[in-house]
Amino acid sequence: MSPAYPPIARLVPHGLPLRALEALLHWHEGCAVCRVTIREDLPFVRDGRLASIVTLEYMAQAVAVCLGHEAFVAGQGVRVGMIIGVRKLEIVVPFIDVGTELRIEVDRDRGNDEVSTFRGTTKAGETVISLASMTIYHGAQPHPA
Q1: Which CATH fold topology does 8-138 show?
Q2: Beta strand 127-138 pairing with 31-37
Q3: For 55-90, how does the pLDDT look when each residue is reduced to its tens digit (9 = 90+)?
Q4: Strand segments (E) across the chain
Q5: For residue 36, what are the β-bridge partners?
Q6: How far is Cα 143 from Cα 5, in angstroms, rounded to an integer?
């Protein structure tokens, strides 16, 4: 039986309509696997397809989910972060059709409490859509309410 994870909305500071990820499928410290189905109502979908460059945002959101779940498990609040660098971005498939289910996998290479580096992969089934290596800045810890 797979563990029940909190809804994505509890793990990331992104609001709709930009929060695209639908579910956290698997997590362990420094790693997360998330799901999104490309829908007509998602930002940046045009003429029934999405330019794969947008998967960089989905990988960044998966990092936010990974770190958000780490905070959730530790009983802490979610932190706001941002991509400060992309060392490598490879787009293998240029467009993704509406209706395609994507798996976004992220793994922390290294890091500390302020900055970390994650590798990300976006797949449709076994087909690799995109790969990236991102450097993420972690914002300040939220103050307790």
Answers
A1: Thiol Ester Dehydrase; Chain A (3.10.129)
A2: unpaired
A3: 999 999 999 999 999 888 888 877 777 888 898 999
A4: 23-28, 31-37, 45-46, 49-51, 81-91, 95-97, 101-111, 115-124, 127-138
A5: 102
A6: 24
